[in-house]
Design goal:
With 536 residues, the chain is mainly β. The strands form 10 sheets. It has a 4-stranded antiparallel β-sheet with strand order 1-35-34-33, with no helix packed on it. Strands 2-3-4-5 form a 4-stranded antiparallel β-sheet, with no helix packed on it. A 4-stranded antiparallel β-sheet has the order 6-7-8-9, with no helix packed on it. A hairpin with a 4-residue loop joins strand 16 (256-261) and strand 17 (266-272).
């Protein structure tokens, strides 16, 4: 049975009505295909008043230390990392905050932990300046700090713990006069000699300066005004191969992925993530049609993945991506346009008048930088942001599977009153259909009871979807868990968990309960929920 509820209301003081809500949802969704896995929410954490946490980024990214049963959570509102005792996951307890009071730094963006060492990625207060990775022990004592590339957005340890890696996004401050556009990069920090001895000489930052246009395929976008390839490519998230040889780095705005050889500290290739054909898969394209209508439209969806994870099946390595989508919207340059406001090529779109009506495609946001294939000023193709799907690739970046329209279809079936809502208001039905839909963003992969599962958070409508990926070429959907209360008030903290940002899978061997756990952090509600996986 699918459920997102606690077994005991006393374990969840935030949402006493959740059990009844979950039971209703469970009866609508049914059981897992071919199995008896259940997922129950058993605990919830918030660092303060739920009203005060709303939409402040108080819980964004988490990491788990199994030796101490400690959860680390980045808190953008407090400009700190919360240290949380998870030894009793039904009652997570705040222990301390690791603060970042330095005014030259921004708020932490990412955290990782290994063997009691905490690594935190912290951008500069001026995001175009180099950022930092700071190391602490679990008591919050500083161990070391080094400079990395501009806007480090994700940090992780290599599987053997000898290297810490960051994805440095290198976002521009804008594209007009006087604006700065730093290069995107990946920093490798050698911690093999122990973190306490780490110095700046142990940092190698890998950029994209050696690439030339011929190295990029047609679906890799390099389009910032006057930007070089090295400046235009923007690392978002990364994952490391199990053997520690390779890092796979999403370049979200560019609709691509970089493959980095870690031993050689070099980018070996940039692979385009390709396009999803929505004339085949379908999507809901209008926020003004008054209905849920997932239809076939002549639109290409750029995958533009955010999170990426690596897993192995049968000795082969696979990559899974959450294809959120993201547009460039800056002073001096904004690529977003609505289809109603562009000129469509009459040969490619003979029914342009019909398509450009608001209740059809008129409201859908697409890129003005893509789709003019012949350079005559009109659009021959329509490239939308994100594909509203997850994808699986092999280790070379070759696509082996895509979920198509399953995410939108599932939300429409299970939560029709919440279909394509926004993450900060419950009266927003269908409001995101014109703009990336449910936005699959964060993900985690883990093995539970002999099978491998992928968990994908939906940033806008909330909750997470689950697939069994024992066969990566034909994943089986398990179901959808969403504890959001669509009758509550988001700003007052009565709508449940909103805006899932990060997911952490805790294997049974590392879990305080002896069963696998899934931790989901929620940027909008400022809450962290802990789920337990059990067999019926």
């Amino acid at each position: 049975m699918l459920t997102g509820a606690c077994d005991d209301d006393s374990q969840d003081p935030f949402a006493p009505e959740l059990d009844a809500l979950a039971e209703r949802r469970a009866s609508e969704v049914g059981v897992e295909v071919g199995g008896s896995l259940e997922i129950h929410r058993i605990g919830r954490y918030a660092s303060g008043s739920l009203v005060g946490l709303f939409d402040q980024g108080a819980a964004e990214i988490a990491a788990y230390d199994p030796e101490s049963s400690t959860l680390l959570v980045t808190n953008g509102m407090a400009k700190s990392v919360d240290v949380v005792d998870l030894s009793d996951p039904t009652s997570p307890a705040f222990v301390r905050a690791i603060p970042f009071p330095d005014r030259t730094l921004g708020a932490p963006t990412s955290v990782a932990v290994r063997d009691g060492v905490v690594a935190v990625a912290v951008p500069s207060a001026i995001i175009t300046n180099p950022g930092r990775v700071s190391f602490f022990d679990l008591d919050g004592n500083p161990l070391a700090s080094v400079t990395v590339g501009a806007l480090p957005d994700m940090v992780t340890f290599s599987p053997d713990g000898t290297t810490v890696l960051t994805a440095n996004e290198g976002e521009p401050s804008g594209y007009g006069g006087g604006h700065v556009d730093p290069e995107g990069s990946v920093s490798l920090i050698d911690v093999s000699g122990g973190v306490a001895g780490v110095q700046q000489a142990d940092v190698t930052t890998v950029g994209f300066g050696a690439l030339v246009p011929g190295d990029l395929d047609a679906t890799t976008r390099v389009f910032g005004p006057r930007a070089s390839i090295a400046k235009d490519l923007e690392p978002e998230f990364l994952a490391v191969a199990p053997d520690g040889s390779t890092a796979f780095v999403t370049l979200q705005e560019n609709n691509a992925m970089a493959i980095v050889d870690l031993a050689g500290a070099a980018v070996t290739s940039v692979v385009g993530m390709g396009l999803v054909d929505h004339s085949v898969t379908g999507l809901d394209a209008s926020d003004q049609d008054g209905v849920i209508e997932i239809g076939a439209w002549p639109v290409w969806g750029m995958r533009q993945p955010d999170a990426i994870a690596v897993f192995e099946v049968g000795g082969s390595t696979y990559l899974v991506t959450a294809n959120e989508g993201d547009a460039r919207e800056y002073d001096g340059f904004d690529e977003q346009v609505r289809i109603a406001d562009v000129i469509l090529d009459p040969g490619a779109f003979p029914d342009a008048v019909h398509l450009q009506q608001d209740e059809h495609l008129g409201r859908l946001r697409v890129s003005s930088s893509c789709g003019d294939l012949d350079g005559d000023g009109d659009l021959d193709e329509l490239w939308a942001f994100g594909s509203r799907s997850i994808s699986i690739f092999d280790a070379s970046g070759t696509l082996v599977w895509d979920s198509g329209a399953v995410i939108e279809q599932t939300v429409a079936a299970v939560f029709p009153e919440g279909f394509n809502t926004d993450n900060d208001a419950n009266d927003s039905l269908d409001s995101r259909s014109d703009d990336k839909g449910p936005e699959p963003e964060g993900l985690a992969v883990g093995e539970a009871f002999g099978s491998t599962y992928v968990f994908v958070g939906l940033e806008r409508v909330g909750g997470f979807m689950v697939w069994n990926v024992d066969d990566p070429l034909a994943p089986v959907p398990w179901g959808y868990v969403n504890p959001r209360d669509f009758a509550g008030d988001a700003a007052l903290g009565t709508a449940g968990d909103l805006g899932p940002e990060g997911l952490v899978f805790i294997a049974a061997i590392d879990s305080p309960t002896g069963n696998p756990l899934l931790v989901v952090t929620h940027e909008t509600s400022g809450t962290v929920s802990i789920y337990e996986l059990v067999l019926a």
